[in-house]
Amino acid sequence: MGAGIERTGIxxxxxxxxxxxxxxxxxxxxxxxxxxxxxxDDPVSCxxxxxxxHRHRVHGLFLGVFADVALAEGWVDIxxxxxxxxxxxPVPAGLPDEEDDTPAxxxxxxxxDNERAELVGRLTGAIHPHDRAHAYLLMIAVSPEHxxxxxxxxxxxxxxxxxxxxxxxxxLEASSERxxxxxxxxxxxxxxxxxxxxxGPHMWPMWREPRDx
Length: 213
Prior knowledge:
Layout: H1 12-18, E1 20-22, H2 28-38, H3 43-48, H4 52-73, E2 75-79, E3 84-91, H5 102-110, H6 116-127, E4 134-142, H7 151-166, E5 170-174, H8 177-185, E6 189-190, E7 195-196, E8 202-208
Parallel strand pairs: 4-5
Antiparallel strand pairs: 1-2, 2-3, 3-4, 5-8, 6-8, 7-8
Helix pairs in contact: 2-4, 4-5, 5-6
């Protein structure tokens, strides 16, 4: 999922000078707050929690599971000033040994009576490729007041450069047409089949082959 992705860039050198660091467990409150802000009006979040007041009550619990998974099983890159972050997971080749319980956990923690809180994870998980090892961009978030400045791209590009050096593909699901266009500029291509949320928005699975170093 993508949120707050840029429309224009303002110079990547200045952004890099601001610093990108690896987040740790002590950063969790900052990560959750940033996810809440960035995804407040995201099409998928609005579908999962259509009532805005209810969304504000449970959204942090829901999104916090993403942060926990990335901190435990992958990594989180965050700008030093806390205005943007990217959650990544390394995905090995081959089918998982057992069914992922994350969707059910998200529903149980955030909104037990809301089937949509689990369904979105089930649907995206069902189409996630496992034939090749890859880097999975789970989520990227940019604070609303800093959107349009190239922060999302600045966070993603170093990881993609490393993927290119290592010959590793990358994968994500775009949750809006705007974020899809950014990812296309970074070398991702639509896999051809959308994730269609019932009576809701589409998501675009996207794959990126490594470029020659």
